[in-house]
Specification:
Chain lengths: 229, 80
């Protein structure tokens, strides 16, 4: 399993991802700079980490989505390569056209930073095989623009094709109400591309990999990836 | 040549910032505000003096970067 983590100016969770991947795979991922034009030869997984790329100027992820390295990321995705975007990385994926829809300002206009339960919608993908379908996991969220929306047709397609990866829920797995932190339509916390190889998600599994720090529910995602490639 | 690109949210797209501004205006006692939608304005200076070339470049700028056409519309005005 060869992974690469891309750093943009303003990324700030790249070391968290490096740590999570190193723990799961036993080797450190390659560090790739946004201005590079190529991914390392043989890369299986590309991760776009969280942070505030380009200070969230224009729109979150808008400028990073057009950075030089993104052409290589698009080509990697087109070959069926794995691409994971977390938080700002998810915003970059929708801005770059790799995933549909957009992440708007949270419905209550507040930056939300808290622990959050998610329901794993399916476990037959490269990202979730270490979980079981319907499992409730506890990770954390930290974002001001996580309110996922798309037009009705896109939402119907995502739902119909089973492309919702995670939904916000409470500890019992109940959806809706106060367990939705940002107003996302259908409580969507993460979505897949049509071939299930690109995943964008607002929550941070990479921060829940150590029992000393909040829990280990995020480990499953990286363990799944390690098994997949 | 100077130009202005105005980016606005499409109809039907929820605009929580516009809503917050709307209620702030009301709480300031500014009467008669029916609704507020927030957008963005880009004032751009172009090297070109050719109008159609400028319009084509700005259209590209709007489509490729300035607006996210999933939720936003934009319009281009040449100012001189």
């Amino acid at each position: 399993m060869k992974s690469a983590v891309i750093t943009f100016p303003g990324s700030n969770r790249e070391q968290d991802v490096v740590k999570a991947l190193a723990q799961a795979t036993g080797k450190a991922p390659a560090a790739v700079w946004h201005a590079d034009h190529d991914l390392p030869q043989g890369t299986d997984l590309v991760v776009l980490p969280g942070g505030f790329s380009y200070g969230d100027y224009l729109r979150c992820g808008a400028i990073a989505g057009r950075a030089p390295i993104m052409d290589a990321v698009r080509a990697h995705a087109a070959r069926g390569g794995l691409v994971l975007g977390i938080c700002n990385g998810f915003q970059i994926l929708v801005e770059s056209g790799l995933l549909p829809g957009i992440l708007m300002r949270n419905a209550d206009l507040r930056f939300v930073c808290r622990m959050q339960h998610l329901r794993v919608e399916r476990n037959d993908t490269a990202y979730t095989s270490a979980y079981h379908a319907g499992q409730v996991i506890k990770v954390c969220i930290a974002h001001g623009e996580g309110n996922y929306i798309a037009d009705d047709q896109t939402i119907a397609r995502l739902e119909g094709e089973g492309r919702v990866a995670f939904r916000y829920c409470d500890a019992q797995g109940q959806l809706g109400g106060v367990s939705n932190p940002n107003g996302s339509i259908h409580d969507i916390a993460g979505i897949y591309s049509d071939n299930l190889r690109v995943l964008g998600m607002m929550p941070h599994p990479e921060n829940l990999i150590d029992s000393l720090v909040g829990g280990v529910d995020g480990r499953g995602l990286f363990a799944s990836l390690n098994k997949a490639a | 040549m100077k130009a202005r690109v105005t980016v606005t949210l499409k109809n039907g797209v929820l605009d929580p910032q516009g809503k917050a501004i709307e209620s702030a205006l009301r709480s300031l006692g500014i009467d008669g505000v029916a609704s507020v939608r927030q957008g963005k304005v880009f004032d751009i200076v172009l090297d070109s003096t050719d109008k159609s070339a400028a319009e084509a470049a700005l259209k590209q700028a709007g489509d490729k970067l300035l607006a996210n056409t999933v939720i936003e519309n934009f319009k281009v005005d040449l100012l001189d």
